[in-house]
Specification:
Blueprint: E1 4-7, H1 8-11, E2 12-16, E3 28-35, E4 46-47, E5 52-54, H2 56-61, E6 72-75, E7 84-87, E8 91-93, E9 97-102, H3 108-117, H4 119-123, H5 136-140, E10 143-146, H6 149-189, E11 201-202, E12 205-206, E13 210-213, E14 218-222, E15 234-241, H7 243-246, E16 251-252, E17 257-259, H8 261-265, E18 277-280, E19 282-283, E20 288-291, E21 296-297, E22 301-306, H9 312-320, H10 323-329, E23 336-337, H11 340-344, E24 347-350, H12 353-392
Parallel strand pairs: 3-8, 4-7, 15-21, 16-20
Antiparallel strand pairs: 1-10, 2-9, 3-5, 6-7, 6-9, 11-12, 13-24, 14-22, 15-17, 18-20, 18-22, 19-23
Helix pairs in contact: 3-6, 6-12
Length: 398
């Protein structure tokens, strides 16, 4: 396999995204995905869901920035430089993302994997500023080694087999989580729990239920970041969770940053046990995940260590329902901030213990299966990432 070297501009047409004016509310909440770096995740190559959407009005206003299906997206501004994905449908991206609409003899999936292979070299073009930027012109001029179209297709076919399995597992996990959520909604929101017909309603709630504070449900801990000036605080094997590690994950199994024993021990009170509940409370608030192992986390996250195991899955879903309230008390600004005091002072309904135990009995095997599928995906990603450079440099023939 002898690659030829081509600029990105020779492989496809580059389009830089743009955000519709926030004053034009009619541009939002429509049928088109609005992709931001937060929505891109190396765990799934096709971007199929986004936090926000845009409308036909946005498309009419920004027609030149809309990208077609199978466009390859690459974040080129800020700390998230290098996040990439493939558009699953016609969509709009924000200005932090450059997208490539592949030309006829460039395979889009291959182009995606090629960029994944070259993330570090692209990052180097961003400079050492606080907000690194790889401009559109710099991005277009990046030179990459590209094999024949046939070899592109073969490489993409091999690697996408792994990603397709990962996506299938993610769909199964989503169905499992949704099944448990439906039980939560039926019992604790619609109040059609087992025996509800014979339960008195007192002051608007079932008898025996009571309103309490989040702090009454267990220990609330706010994360902290060890000094970044001491390099030996980082690079170990203790997971250090940040909000991007939580996106789309019921369990956090992998983090972009890890701490050494020294880094973690300098704030030993910030360790969380497995199955603690994480809630993002600064920036993008209301993201909820579970820890998979003993770990630490940063100050943008508040965590609950439940005082009883039977509270765990109830709180997981109850906290997801808190997002509108967190948005409101966070100040409604670009960088929302829900302090530990505000978070632990939120009131929440606590059902009777019997019902919580029954719900835990239903959820426990469901979440165990979700965790098993998550671990399978981790192994698939590892195998894919080992194959990627070997296929790209011709070490493995196609």
């Amino acid at each position: 396999m002898k690659p030829s070297f081509k600029k990105i501009s020779e492989l496809g047409r580059v389009i830089t995204g743009k955000t519709p004016p926030t004053s034009r509310q009619e541009c939002f909440d429509g049928e088109y995905l609005f992709v931001t770096p937060t929505d891109l995740n190396y765990d799934h190559y096709y971007c199929r869901a986004t936090e926000r959407t845009v409308s036909e009005e946005a498309k009419a206003m920004l027609a030149n920035q809309f990208i077609p299906v199978d466009s390859v997206m690459f974040t080129c501004i800020g700390a998230t430089i290098g996040k990439c994905g493939i558009a699953s449908s016609e969509c709009l991206t924000n200005q932090q993302i450059n997208s490539i609409v592949a030309y006829e003899y460039t395979d889009p999936k291959f182009l995606y994997y090629l960029l994944c292979q070259n993330i570090e070299s692209v990052k180097g073009l961003g400079g050492g500023s606080a907000t690194p930027i790889v401009s559109k012109s710099k991005f277009e001029d990046i030179v990459l080694g590209v094999p024949s179209f046939h070899d592109q297709q073969r490489i993409a076919s091999i690697l996408s087999t792994y990603d397709d399995l990962i996506e299938n597992n993610r769909r199964r996990m989503a169905l499992l989580e949704d099944a448990a959520r439906q039980v939560y909604q039926e019992w604790f929101v619609r109040l059609r729990f087992p025996g509800y017909e014979h339960t008195r309603i007192v002051d608007g709630v079932p008898e025996g239920w009571k309103k309490c504070l989040i702090s009454d449900l267990g220990d609330v801990v706010t994360g902290k970041t060890p000094s970044t000036k001491e390099e030996d605080n980082y690079g170990g094997d203790i997971m250090f969770v940040k909000t991007p590690d939580m996106h789309g994950n019921v369990y956090v199994l992998h983090t972009e940053t890890c701490l050494t024993e020294k880094g973690a021990n300098c704030q030993s009170g910030k360790f969380l046990p497995p199955e603690s509940i994480l809630v993002s409370c600064i920036g993008t608030v209301g993201v909820v995940s579970l820890t998979s192992e003993r770990c630490q986390f940063n100050q943008q996250i508040n965590a609950l260590i439940p005082c009883k195991e039977s509270l765990r899955y109830y709180c997981f879903f109850a906290f997801k329902d808190l997002k509108p309230r967190l948005d409101a008390i966070g100040g409604g600004v670009t960088m929302a901030n829900v302090s530990k005091g505000k978070f632990e002072s939120l009131d929440i309904m606590r059902p009777v213990s019997r019902l919580l135990r029954n719900f835990d009995d239903i959820c426990r095997p469901v979440f165990k299966q979700i965790r098993t599928l998550s671990l399978q995906n981790q192994k698939l990603r590892t195998a894919r990432d080992l194959l990627l450079p070997k296929l790209m440099n011709g070490e493995i023939a196609v």
